[in-house]
Amino acid sequence: MEAARAAMAWCGVEEEKEIGSRKAPGACPRCGGAVVATDVESARRILCLPLCVRNKKKFSCTRCRRSLVAIYSN
Question: What does the DSSP assignment read for 6-48?
Answer without folding.
Answer: HHHHHH-EEEEEEEEEEEEEEE-TTT--EEEEEEEEEEEEETT
